[in-house]
Amino acid sequence: MSKKVFTVDEIKRKIEFYCVYQDRCHKDVEKKLRDYNLIPEAREYVLLHLLEHNFLNEERFSKSFARGKFRIKKWGKQRIVRELKQREISSYNIKTALKEIDEQDYIATLYSLIEKKNNFLSETNLFKKKKKIIDHLLYKGFETNLIFEAVNEVVI
Fold first, then answer.
1. Given Cys at both, which of 19, 93, 112, 127 links 55, Cβ 3.0 to 4.6 Å?
2. Which long-range contacts (CB under 8 A, 24 or more apart) does 64-67 make?
3. How confident is the model at residue 3 (pLDDT cuts 50, 70, 90)?
4. Which residues of 105-127 are buried (b: 16+ CB within 10 A; e: fewer)?
5. Helix segments in the chain, DSSP class H
């Protein structure tokens, strides 16, 4: 079974659709281009086209990534930063992305996650219960100082 061969223009169109469907970072697009086994010059040509026509925009990607992961998956800032760094996003764009998260929503989300986990756990030992809640929130990527402050306020 042989792999289907595409022209550079066909690949360019496919990658345009890939970027339009959902904001993508450079790393994802470069991986997708590698899957097509393009020569380096063709890869550069397609990447340049995507950048020039605003199909690929790292700032837009990082902002929508931060908003989405916070709103939908309830991730904390540390987890979002870690994931963006993994995708090789610049520090400037990471800082810009974090500004998309409203501070009051952030704190409200932290408290609602604590309430939810607190009601869900059947642990009777208060210290074990707090540890489980704290571990859960650390995994979600919330800052340690905020977690301790909020958990000590809510879980009594």
1. 19
2. 64/23, 65/23, 65/25, 65/97, 66/97, 66/98, 66/100, 66/101, 67/100, 67/101
3. low
4. ebeebbeebbeebbeeeeeeeee
5. 8-21, 26-35, 40-52, 58-73, 77-86, 91-98, 103-120, 126-140, 144-154
- What number of residues does the chain have? 156
CB neighbours of residue 75 within 10 Å: 23
Q: Report CA 66 to chain centroid distance, whole Å.
A: 5
Distance CA 70, CA 100 (A): 10
Q: Average pLDDT for residues 93-111, to the nearest whole number?
A: 96
The pair of three-digit structure tokens given for residue 43, joined into one six-digit string: 């890869």
CA angle at residue 79 from 78 to 80, to 5 degrees?
90
Return the C-alpha torsion angle 22, 23, 29, 33, nearest 10: 40
Rounded to whole angstroms, the Cα distance separating 101 from 76 reads 10
- pLDDT tens digits for range 44-88: 999 999 999 999 999 999 999 999 999 999 999 999 999 999 999
